[in-house]
Each structure stands twice: as C-alpha cells, then as structure tokens.
C-alpha cells in the first residue's frame, strides 16, 4: 500500500514538472532570441558606424577650418613682412632719384630686376644652412681669437720698440694700434686670416695736422669724393684767416699779413716732415717709407726675444707684415699708419686695400677716409638690441664665403667684402630687431642677396655712414659726414663697363652654384 501511494505521487510530480505551461522549455525559443540579438547588434553597429562617420566629418571640417585660419595668419604675416621689405627697399632707395647718375643706355635692359635672378635657383633650406654654418664657419671663431691675441701682443711690443728708436724731437709720434675689419667684427671666414691694425701718428712739436675733406665746402671733383688732404702747419699758424694760401698771387704782389719768409719753409724741413716736394701737404708715400724704415729698426732691436722672422710680405701693401715660424707656418697682418680727423674716430689712411673696382688715387697727397672704427661700434651697438644668437653675422659670413669661393673659380670681380658688409649695415638699420632671430637666417640671407642684386642693377650702393642722417647719436659720429651728399660705392661701375659686366656675371654664377658650394661643405641631410 505505501509502495502504491509512492508510485502515484511520483507520477503526479512528474506530470506537474513536465507541464509546458508551468515550466516552458527554454530550448524552444533560443533560435528566435538569437536572431533578434543578431539583428539588434547589426542595427547598433550600423548606428555606431554612422556616428563615427559623422564625427570624422566634423573633425575633418574642424581641421580644414584650422588650416584655413593658419593659412590666413601666414598670409597676413607674409603681407606684413612684404610690407616691411617694401618699406625697406623704399627707404633705402630714397636717394635713387632720376637724373642723379649717368645714364648707361641700353645695357641695363639686359639686367634682371629685383628677384628675377632667383628664378630657378635652388636655395638651401634652413637645415642645410644650419649644418653648413656649424661645420664650415663656426669652428673658425676660436682660431681668430687666438690669432688676434698673439698679433696684438706682438704689435704692441713692436710699436714700443719703434718709439724708442725714433727721435722724439724730429720724428712722428706713434700712438697705440687699434684692430679693425672682419677679424675684429668676427665675420671673417676665408683663410688665411689677416689682422688689420691701424696706427695713429702725429707730427712733432710745434707742428700739427690741419685736414681738408671733400665735403667741407670746397669743391672736389667726383673722383676725389671720399678723400681729403692733410697740411702740416705750425701750431701757432693761422691758415684759415688769409686768402694768400688759397689764391695764386701775381709775381709783383705780396701778402701784407704773411711775409715770404713766413710762408716759405726750407724744402728739407718739410721733407723731413714727410711732405710732398715743395709743399706742406703730407705725402702718403713718404709716410709709408718712413714707417717701413722705423719698423725695420724696431724689429732689429727686439728680434732676439722671438723665435721667428718678420718681413714685409706684399709690395703693393706697404704695411703688410708676415711672421714666419721655424716650423714653416706663418701669420700675416697689416700695420697701417693713419691720421686722426679732428677729434673723431674717422681716420685718413695712407694705403687702403685695393680692388679691381677701385680707381687710382688722385695723388699721394690725397688720403682716403676710413670709418672702420664707427662701423665696428655700430655693429656692437645694434647687436645689443637683437635676439640671442642673431643671424646678421651668420648671413654676412655665408655670403662672404660664397662670393670668395665663386671668385676662386671664375676670377676676381668688382665686389669686395666691404661691399657685402655695407649691405648688411643697411639692412641692420632697416629691418626690425626681431627679424634677425636665428631661425630667420634663410629669409635674411635672401634679403641680402636681393638687395645686392638691386644695387648692382642700379649701379648704386651708398656708403653706410656718409649722408646717413639716421646714424645713432650714441656713436658720436661727426655731423659733417651725415650732412654730406651720399657717396655711391658703385660709381666706378658707370665708368668701367667691362668690370661691371664681369661682376654681374660672377654674382649670377654664384647664385646658380650656391647649393653646390654649400653642399660641398655640408654633411648629407636626408
């Protein structure tokens, strides 16, 4: 009986458990639910894809907008820079007026205009220029410093010995030397390095120098612009109050203020004062002969102290000296006597390095004026206002290197390193200080080349100081030179067309060879 009841209960429980309404079988709905899930997942995936596309489109639109803004900013910046450059060219061309200079006819029709010579020229990029500067130029700075120190020390010793061998009552009085030029402005790049030292001198008492320059009011012919004369007078002599010294009197006329005995000095006396024969004007050739003899005597006195030889190295540069060591190495430097103009740092220089463009001196009584001391001071003054590691000196060094290499390939031209420095001085004054930041080396180098091309095209490159009324007052530059007519350094191009054509051809050849010349001294940059 209990066993039967148990069986009945087991059957009932089994029936209840297996009833489809109470416990539905899950396996029966799996296929239907899986398809729904897959469908929903597909719909979700499609939704996410559309959302992704929308977001990507929005991002692309934002990037395009950002690029457009950046492009607009660059255009504005370029327009500002072009305006500055245009203003710079305009400012530097104020004196280039029509009719001021000789018309050269149809020759200029074949010349390029500003910037056209650069078409098709592969200009080195910033990375190549930086690598070239670091590898080829930067390493020479230490060599220059050591050489300057050695030459200055020896020159001081030599001049001290020169004073000791001179007659203090009859010979010229020699002052301390000063370093000028590229070695002292830290932009010389080509070897051999040559230090340029100038040595001021003055006449013995009771004499003095009285100078007359081309822009002092008296008429000087065009080929004598930039020159002056130096008269040797007694300190108590008034040479400005009487016209007898400036006007040729008749044979039967005498000056009532100055007797013949006072105006005429023995020829030997004036020649002892290094004057031109039968005149009171200082003779540059006589000065150099005296200086060479005095230097030779001074070296004989101190030569036992040194283990090298000293000699004059160049016949056409009387102040060129060479130190030759026993090892065979040598050091060249120029020691040139100069006369101070009044109380300024402008000097009359007896002999100036000549170039194929320079004309012959009018006479040995005409002295060229050098503004090298003020040029060095101007560069130092402006450098204080420029960004750190400014690129002005780098531009000049690269341009000087390129021109020197090109001239070594195709021969000399009418351009000199002084012309290149003059271009830099003009741009230093015209461009804002921030434009000389180191990262703008490429742009400023192009500016220098374009400005030089413009000057060659017009045959006009004005001296930086003469006629420049914007020279900083801190320099203390003489006002008489600021008020003078601008001096065109390219004036000889008007008269010497063969030199002009050679110079232009060399310049254009340098532009075409620029990348090759730089890559020759540059590590490969992929």
UniProtKB/TrEMBL annotation:
GO terms for molecular function: protein kinase inhibitor activity. It holds the Pfam family Mab-21_C. It is a single-pass type I membrane protein. Residues 38-82 form a coiled coil. Residues 393-466 form the Mab-21-like HhH/H2TH-like domain. Enhances Ca(2+)-mediated inhibition of inositol 1,4,5-triphosphate receptor (ITPR) Ca(2+) release. This is Inositol 1,4,5-trisphosphate receptor-interacting protein. It comes from Podiceps cristatus (Great crested grebe).
């Amino acid at each position: 009986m209990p066993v039967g009841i148990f069986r009945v209960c087991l059957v009932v429980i089994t029936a209840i458990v297996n009833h489809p309404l109470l416990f539905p079988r899950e396996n029966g709905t799996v296929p239907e639910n899986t398809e729904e899930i897959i469908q929903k997942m597909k719909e979700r995936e499609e939704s996410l894809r559309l959302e992704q596309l929308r977001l990507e489109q929005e991002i692309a639109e934002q990037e395009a907008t950002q690029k457009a803004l950046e492009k607009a900013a660059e255009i504005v910046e370029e327009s500002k820079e072009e305006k500055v450059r245009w203003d710079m060219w305009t400012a530097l061309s104020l004196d280039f007026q029509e009719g001021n200079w000789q018309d050269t006819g149809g020759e200029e029709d074949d010349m390029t205009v500003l910037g056209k010579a650069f078409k098709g020229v592969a200009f080195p990029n910033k990375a190549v220029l930086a690598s070239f500067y670091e590898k080829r130029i930067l390493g020479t700075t230490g060599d220059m410093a050591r050489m300057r120190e050695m030459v200055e020390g020896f020159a001081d010793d030599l001049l001290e010995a020169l004073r000791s061998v001179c007659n203090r009552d009859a010979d010229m009085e020699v002052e301390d030397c000063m370093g000028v030029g590229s070695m002292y402005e830290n932009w010389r790049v080509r070897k051999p390095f040559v230090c340029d030292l100038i040595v001021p001198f003055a006449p013995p008492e009771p004499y003095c120098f009285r100078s007359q320059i081309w822009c002092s009011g008296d008429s000087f012919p065009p080929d004598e612009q930039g020159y002056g004369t130096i008269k040797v007078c007694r300190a108590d002599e008034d040479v400005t109050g009487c016209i007898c010294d400036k006007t040729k009197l008749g044979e039967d006329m005498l000056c009532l203020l100055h007797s013949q005995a006072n105006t005429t000095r023995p020829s030997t006396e004036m020649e002892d004062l290094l004057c031109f024969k039968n005149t009171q004007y200082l003779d540059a050739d006589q000065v150099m002969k005296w200086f060479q003899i005095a230097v030779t005597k001074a070296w004989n006195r101190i030569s036992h102290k040194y283990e090298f030889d000293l000699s004059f190295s160049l016949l056409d540069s009387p102040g060129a000296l060479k130190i030759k060591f026993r090892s065979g190495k040598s050091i060249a430097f120029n020691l040139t006597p100069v006369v101070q103009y009044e109380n300024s740092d402008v000097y009359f220089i007896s002999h100036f390095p000549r170039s194929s463009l320079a004309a012959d001196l009018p006479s040995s009584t005409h002295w060229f004026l050098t503004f090298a001391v003020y040029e060095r001071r101007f560069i130092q003054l402006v450098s204080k206002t420029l960004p750190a590691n400014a690129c002005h000196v780098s531009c000049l060094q690269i341009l000087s290197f390129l021109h020197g290499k090109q001239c070594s390939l195709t021969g000399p031209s009418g351009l000199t390193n002084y012309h290149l420095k003059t271009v830099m001085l003009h741009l230093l004054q015209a461009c804002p200080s921030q434009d000389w930041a180191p990262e703008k080396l490429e742009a400023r180098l192009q500016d220098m080349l374009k400005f030089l091309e413009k000057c060659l095209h017009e045959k006009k490159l004005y001296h930086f100081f003469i006629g420049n009324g914007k020279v900083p007052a801190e320099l203390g530059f003489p006002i008489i030179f600021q008020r003078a007519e601008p001096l065109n350094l390219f004036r000889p191009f008007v008269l010497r067309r063969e030199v002009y054509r050679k110079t232009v051809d060399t310049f254009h050849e340098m532009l075409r060879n620029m990348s090759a010349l730089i890559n020759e001294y540059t590590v490969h940059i992929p």
